Amino acid sequence: MALPNKVKKLLSDAEQLSDYRDCSSYFYKWLHNEFSKQPVGNLINARAEFIDRLLIKLFHVYELSHEPDLALIAVGGYGRGELHPYSDIDFLLLVTEQPSEEICEKIGQFVTMLWDLNLEIGHSVRTIEQAIEQKREDVTFATSLLESRLIFGNHIEFEKLKTFVLETPVWGSSDFFVAKVQEQNLRHRKCHGTAYNLEPNIKENPGGLRDLQTIIWVAKKHFRAETLQELISHGYLTHEEFQELSECLENLWNIRFALHLAAGRSENRLLFDHQPQAAEILGFGSDGKASVERMMKRLFRIMSRVRELNQMLLSYFEQSISPQNSENVVEVLDRNFERVGHQIRVKDPSVFFRRDQLFVLFEHIADNPEITHIYPSTIRTIRQVRRRLLGDLQDYAACREAFLRLVKHPNGMGRAFTLMHKHGMLAAYLPQWRNIFGQMQFDLFHAYTVDEHTHKLIKNIYEYFDKTGISEFPICSEIVTRMDKPELLYLAGIFHDIAKGRGGDHSELGAVDAIAFAKLHGFSSADAKLVAWLVSNHLLMSVTAQRKDINDPAVIKDFATRIKTERQLDYLYCLTVADIRATNDNLWNDWKNTLLRELYLHTQRALRLGLENPMDQRDQIRDKKHQAKQRLLNLGYQEEKIDLIWSRFKANYFTAFSEQQISWQSEHLLSSTDLSQPSVVVSNKAMHGGTQVFVYSPYSGALFARLVSVIGSKKAQIQHAQVLTTKDGYVLFSFVILEVSGDPIASGRAQSIKRGLEQALSDPRKKIRFKKSRSQRFKDFNIKPKIVLRPHARKDRSLIEIQAVDIQGLLTKIAEVFQAHLLHIHAARITTVGERAEDFFVVSNNEYQALTDEEQAKIHQALRKKFNAETE
Q: Could you tell me which residue ranges the ACT domain spans (predicted)?
């Protein structure tokens, strides 16, 4: 589309910097206003035309147009004539020889003017020889030259360069193809191999614009094709696939264009901050999460289609460009399928009229570890069959039988399941799966859509059966090897989140779906109930481990009562570990691993003893004391001194800590020369999944706030906190801390934290300084802190639960409120999940009693006021 006449006139009349800025401002307003009125392709072409005219005008202003040996060449996206509102402007100044000082000065003035206009530019000045040398070393530069376009100047030199780019053996078709595929594979790995991140990169994610551009680049280099449409005549695209790719491209352009407008800058990652405004700009509505969900589902469906077409076309290209690299070994698998190298191919597409053969194809993949991909012609056939399906594949008895064979196959839930997910077979089989495809999650710790999270969960369960699982998850690996029906664990994984997005309790709704599935597929009543129970209770173990004191026998008894049998415990433990690991790449760590393992082992022991004969707390204390004392005696400490130290501790000390922690803390106290003075010890290596911090001090109500402030100022995360008092007025603080990455604290950093805590104890008036925090995100999701006060199991205690965005110093602010209201903190459990903090405190009032209704109301109000002040 031609530029508006007013833009042309403003640009033509511009003389001063302010004139050019006014022209640009008017153009950008026009661009924004026109977005809802005309195709996005017109607008990105219009911006390229605007930049063309601007550069040509400035070329004349700075007298570069008088230089006959100079060519101004657009490269990259600008070379294609595609510029989104704030896309970088890449151009090459091609010279026949090194420019003189006078020309260099003019070029400098030209570039400076562009910077003064706040344009993001990428430029270079090269001779043809230098461009060729750069091209030889850099496939990215070679690609940008492939899309070069002359804007102004020496067309003869430009044609020489263009001819060389296409015909030179430096990057022949085969080498160029291999390099671009490797580049794409690396890009995909950086995105963890999935398009379904909740904050996807429109360009870089699998199925993004780069995947479309890769197809175009290879087609240009090998087939000399200028457009996708030309691939139809070469026999690589059908008319329908060309229309589909064109539609996908336009949709991705629309979303990227809207993202630029929402961000007000060049931005390719669709961050949570920008999603609501981008959704509104695109016409999905302004109703918050609902409009974002509609937009993101559209985006994920587009990316899925692009990724599938990209794989199909690149496989076709490989056969044409590098036939010597395509393995020609053909192995007959049965009368309908054969293996061609590492790909499976259907002999006759009409075979899929028998719908169960779609799953037989994946059975062959499960049977043959050599098969890693599906042959391109077979992908095309699967896509055609998918479009023509009437109803769900689970409606066919033969499909149900084939699907169950896959679920029960030792390798069925490995690569075969991944390819089923990737090529839409799960959505074609299960109607509920279609509902969760591309389903967003707004809980601040899930990193993937519901379907991709579930896919990763299944992959995690599958890992239990291989060598890596045995070394990393020995308990899970041991459990699954003795499971009589591991397929029930897989089915629980498939259904655990399948009801998300419908409203209501997804666990209960998913359990209903699981029962219906089991009934349709002929499962026994007992098996159906187990799967439904797992789906209904899939959050129980993680919630118990992270929010309750698993060293408390009463907690274990209550949990074991809900679990009921050791078999259900086994299944739930394996499901829980896989679920947490699939939630977020940064969520799983040794601390969570330790918590779940200890909960599993404690519960297993309780079930084996019998719920009617629970382990007495006195027996537990006796066992811990015996084991801890034996360790200390072996280190040379005297029993009398050990008993003297322990006589100062209340019984709850021995229930709160493991025998390893008790002996480590006692060793520190036994080595102290003056127990009247405060002291600190930080473990040099991980213990119970994290770095342990133990603080011993005379009691002070303000001490907890200072200690957590020091730890926060050192950029460490508190995962768990325990506060206990001795019989003689001292207080014991125990923290489990981790790096932001989830790893234990490095030894050098551990000593720095120790010194900081010692200074806080020795100089209570010294101010603790925080480093400047990173900016907080998610403001558009209207995430409000949740504060709940409720009774505790002990009548003289109250429980305070706080869920909030993890702002820096959050724990310090909470402690300050507690200090102001003279609360005693008896225990704390701190959990940071992604960007969300979930903190639990066991407290009492100044008289060591449970909080009254009036006290609860005052504390609730004070915490709310503190959080509101922080976010303003």
A: 692-773, 799-872
Contact of 386 with 424, CB cutoff 8 Å: yes
Alpha-carbon Rg for the chain in angstroms: 32
Nearest to 359 by CA among 293, 275, 291, 429: 429
Q: H helices of 409-505, where?
A: 415-422, 425-429, 431-436, 450-463, 467-472, 474-481, 486-495
Q: Give the C-alpha distances (Å, rounded to integers) separating 858 from 635, 820, 861, 862.
A: 50, 11, 5, 6
Annotate 262-308 with DSSP letters as a single string: HHTS---B--TTTHHHHHHHTTS-SSTHHHHHHHHHHHHHHHHHHHH
**Span 687-743, pLDDT tens digits:** 878 899 999 999 876 788 888 888 888 888 888 888 888 998 899 999 989 887 778
Q: DSSP code of 652?
A: H
Sequence-distant (≥ 6) Cβ neighbours of residue 181 within 8 angstroms? 214, 314, 318
- 89: closest CA among 115, 57, 61? 115
SS3 of residue 545 by DSSP: helix
Whether residue 851 is predicted with pLDDT greater than 70 in this model: the reply is: yes
CA 858 to chain centre: 39
Return the structure tokens found at 152: 């102004």
For residues 666 and 648, the answer to whether their CB atoms sit within 8 Å is no
Contacts of 570 (CB under 8 A, 6+ apart): 479, 483
Of the given ranges (87-96, 144-153, 776-785, 847-856), which has the lowest mean pLDDT?
Answer: 776-785
Region label for 444, one of left (φ > 0), alpha (ψ between -120 and 50) or beta (otherwise)? left
Beta-carbon contacts of residue 675 (< 8 Å; ≥ 6 apart): 669, 696
Could you give the CA distance from residue 776 to residue 810 in angstroms, rounded to a whole number? 13
Please name the residues in contact with 93: beta carbons below 8 A apart, sequence gap of 6 or more: 70, 71, 72, 73, 107, 123, 124, 125, 126
What value does the mean pLDDT of the chain take? 89
Q: pTM score, two decimals?
A: 0.85
Alpha-carbon distances of 301 from 188, 297, 304, 308, 434, rounded to whole Å: 17, 6, 5, 11, 11
CB 199 within 8 A of CB 208: no
Q: Among residues 259, 242, 240, 243, which one has the least CA distance to residue 299?
A: 259
Burial of residue 529 (number of CB atoms within 10 Å: 0-12, 13-18, 19+): middle
DSSP code, position 386: H
d(CA 767, CA 11): 57
Tokens (6 digits) for 854: 């009036």
Length of the chain: 872
Q: Tell me which amino acid residue 39 is.
A: P
Instruction: Give the pLDDT band (50/70/90) at residue 640.
Output: very high
Residue among 695, 615, 696, 630 at smallest CA distance from 660: 630
Q: What are the structure tokens assigned to 746, written together?
A: 């490095």
pLDDT score, position 314: 92
By the 8 A CB rule, do 451 and 201 touch? no
- The pLDDT score that the predictor gives to residue 772 is 47
Cβ atoms of 147 and 76 within 8 Å: the answer is: yes
**In the sheet that 330-332 helps form, which strands lie side by side, from edge to edge?**
330-332, 337-340, 343-346, 373-374
Which of 70-74, 187-191, 519-523, 786-790 has the lowest average pLDDT? 187-191
Angle at 107 between CA 102 and CA 109, to 5 degrees: 95
Q: Is 537:526 a contact under the CB 8 Å cutoff? A: no
Phi, psi of 658 (to 5 degrees): -80, 165
**Mean pLDDT of the region 569-598:** 91
pLDDT at position 1: 55
Nearest residue to 777 via CA among 140, 274, 132:
274
